[in-house]
């Protein structure tokens, strides 16, 4: 099956990275909308237009399923894309329910982009879970810029996170939800700042379960293939240049390091 993973930028690689582990025999297209990243600080209308364009392109590649590996694009456009196209379309939303299910009645800090944090969709999600008093929301837009320029560890990253986290008494929190796929690159700096009781929760596993359910796929257990078939696109340009492919490799290596934190 040919599965497209779509994000505003390179955050979606964290979902693809996980897919490569559990579905190594599928064919993958990775589309990062590098011409328009970041989405999270733009208007919903702009994001809808970008997603619309990206979908038209992905459909022209005859993909069999599309994973919107972007919480922001999902919150703006997934419902509309499902209405327009008849193929499995999987979206992502901050894994707040998973955090509450895993850790019970302790506080949860949900981090995401401004669009996701200010969306009606996240309010509906919180209402559905019914633990509003335990859930705090925090936008961390600068992490997207840091990730895009491969600034994973630096004094600026650390100071930014320290400042943003300073308002919370983390002794009372079970977990932090990484509600933007770009945030997975910063788990080591977050770990350094947060006390050990705060666990990371992301939506990668849930998203792939949903992909397998919608596309009728089963996980490939214990079977590694050496060269999975992946084509990378930055906006509509296929990436074939060695330096660009090297750049992507650095992200995937970084995700290998972050996978176990
Ligand atoms: N990676 C995206 C997300 O999961 C959005 C980042 C951005 O473009 O602002 O929300």
Protein described:
The chain is 45% helix and 18% strand. It has 261 residues and is an alpha/beta fold. It has two domains: 2-92 and 204-258, Rossmann fold; 96-202, 3-Layer(aba) Sandwich (Rossmann fold), CATH 3.40.50. It has a six-stranded mixed β-sheet with strand order 4-3-1-2-9-10. Strands 6-5-7-8 form a four-stranded parallel β-sheet. The longest helix is centred in the last third of the chain and has 18 residues, at 242-259. The chain starts with a strand and ends with a helix. D-glutamic acid (DGL) binds at residues 7-9, 11, 37-40, 70-72, 113, 116, 144, 180-182.
Features:
261 residues, alpha/beta, Rossmann fold, 2 domains, 11 helices, globular, binds D-glutamic acid
**Rg calc:** 18 Å
| Helix/strand structural class | alpha/beta
CATH topology of the largest domain: Rossmann fold
- How far is the N terminus from the C terminus? 31 Å
Give the proportion of residues in helices: 40-55%
Question: What percent strand?
Answer: 15-25%
Largest sheet, strands/sense/barrel: 6 strands, mixed
CATH architectural category of the largest domain:
3-Layer(aba) Sandwich
Topology at a glance:
Layout: E1 2-7, H1 13-22, E2 27-32, H2 44-60, E3 65-68, H3 71-84, E4 89-90, H4 96-103, E5 107-112, H5 114-117, H6 120-129, E6 135-139, H7 142-148, H8 155-165, E7 173-178, H9 187-193, E8 199-202, H10 204-215, E9 229-234, E10 237-238, H11 242-259
Parallel strand pairs: 1-2, 1-3, 2-9, 3-4, 5-6, 5-7, 7-8
Antiparallel strand pairs: 9-10
Helix pairs in contact: 1-10, 2-3
Bound molecules: D-glutamic acid.
D-glutamic acid (DGL) binds at residues 7-9, 11, 37-40, 70-72, 113, 116, 144, 180-182.
């Amino acid at each position: 099956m040919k599965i497209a993973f779509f994000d505003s930028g390179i955050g979606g690689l964290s979902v693809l990275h996980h897919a490569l582990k559990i579905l190594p025999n599928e064919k993958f297209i990775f589309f990062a909308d590098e011409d328009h990243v970041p989405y999270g600080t733009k208007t919903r209308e702009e994001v809808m237009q970008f997603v619309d364009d990206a979908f038209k392109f992905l459909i022209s590649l005859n993909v069999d399923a599309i994973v919107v590996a972007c919480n922001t694009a999902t919150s703006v456009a997934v419902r509309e894309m499902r209405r327009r196209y008849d193929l499995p379309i999987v979206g992502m939303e901050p894994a707040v329910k998973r955090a509450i299910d895993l850790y019970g009645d302790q506080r949860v800090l949900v981090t995401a982009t401004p669009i996701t944090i200010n969306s009606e969709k996240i309010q509906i999600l919180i209402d559905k879970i019914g633990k509003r008093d335990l859930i705090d929301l925090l936008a961390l837009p600068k992490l997207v810029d840091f990730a895009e320029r491969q600034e994973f560890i630096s004094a600026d990253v650390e100071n930014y996170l320290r400042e943003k986290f300073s308002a919370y008494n983390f002794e009372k929190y079970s977990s932090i939800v990484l509600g933007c796929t770009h945030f997975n690159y910063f788990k080591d700096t977050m770990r350094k700042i947060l006390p050990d009781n705060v666990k990371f929760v992301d939506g990668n596993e849930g998203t792939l379960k949903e992909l397998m359910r919608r596309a009728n796929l089963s996980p490939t257990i214990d079977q590694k293939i050496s060269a999975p078939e992946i084509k990378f696109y930055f906006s509509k340009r296929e990436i074939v240049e060695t330096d660009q492919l090297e750049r992507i490799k650095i992200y995937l290596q970084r995700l290998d390091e972050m996978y176990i934190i």
